[in-house]
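Q: what sequence does this backbone want?
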């Protein structure tokens, strides 16, 4: 007989939470539902850990930007080539405009230039609305570039049709012919200097044959061309040469890139017109160009 007073609940064992089902083949014990709430929580936690793993920062560790100290004789195109800067001297100048200033042709020994590593790595995320908005802008820029290319081609066609052109595009004379000064061994400037940042395309003013192309002392890398009228044109301080002696060239054809080789205070193009191939036979180069119908 049960004791009177408090009703004592029979203790339920772990297995009693299972379900005992009777079947034709005997008793079947269903698995106990022990800690159902905890199991459900564990199932919820597992995906959360996976999400957490995927949501770890996807940023790529960037190496610290390198710096380069400018030395005498350096110019941006030379540094960009030696340091293998993607984007060339234009990218190097863009990254260091606050150091170099407004004139990319003027860099001084001791300047500290940052070499690349300014562009941030793209995030692995869905394109933002801003990026989607920028896409049409890039498409819009494409026709503008095509227009610029057509304009350049048109200008080249005009110079080639007449056979004569300026040695650099947007020709801006910085030092006139016959300017006097102690900087020149003859006491005066034997040619005309054109503004040209390092790496600017230098072209033959007219059709002719390359007489020499190589190193020439204080002129640095130079090209000398003989034209059909018997006159010679000279292009000095080049950073690189694009032609060789004996080669035939046409008016407007690229023959090299401007630079600051030889005895030079900075990147520019020294241009001469001569009656002979050598120094000392110079004539007014601007007057010569104008005599051939070149507007300058």
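A:
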């Amino acid at each position: 007989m049960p004791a009177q007073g408090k009703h004592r609940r029979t203790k339920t064992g772990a297995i009693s939470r299972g379900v005992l089902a009777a079947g034709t083949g005997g008793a079947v014990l269903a698995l106990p539902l022990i800690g159902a709430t905890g199991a459900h929580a564990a199932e919820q936690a597992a995906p959360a850990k996976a999400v957490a793993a995927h949501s770890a920062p996807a940023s790529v560790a960037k190496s610290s930007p390198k710096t380069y100290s400018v030395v005498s004789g350096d110019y941006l195109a030379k540094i960009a080539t030696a340091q293998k800067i993607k984007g060339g001297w234009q990218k190097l100048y863009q990254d260091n405009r606050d150091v170099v200033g407004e004139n990319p042709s003027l860099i001084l020994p001791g300047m500290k230039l940052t070499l690349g590593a300014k562009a941030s790595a793209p995030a692995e995320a869905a394109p933002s609305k801003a990026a989607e908005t920028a896409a049409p802008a890039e498409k819009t820029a494409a026709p503008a570039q095509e227009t610029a290319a057509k304009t350049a081609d048109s200008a080249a066609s005009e110079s080639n049709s007449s056979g004569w052109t300026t040695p650099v595009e947007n020709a801006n004379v910085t030092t006139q012919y016959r300017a006097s000064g102690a900087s020149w061994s003859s006491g005066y400037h034997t040619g005309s200097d054109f503004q040209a940042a390092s790496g600017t395309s230098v072209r033959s003013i007219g059709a002719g044959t390359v007489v020499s192309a190589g190193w020439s002392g204080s002129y640095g890398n130079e090209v000398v061309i003989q034209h059909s009228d018997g006159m010679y044109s000279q292009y000095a301080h080049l950073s690189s040469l694009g032609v060789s002696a004996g080669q035939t060239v046409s008016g407007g054809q690229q023959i090299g890139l401007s630079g600051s080789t030889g005895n030079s205070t900075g990147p520019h193009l020294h241009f001469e017109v001569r009656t002979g191939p050598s120094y000392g036979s110079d004539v007014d180069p601007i007057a010569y160009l104008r005599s051939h119908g070149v507007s300058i």
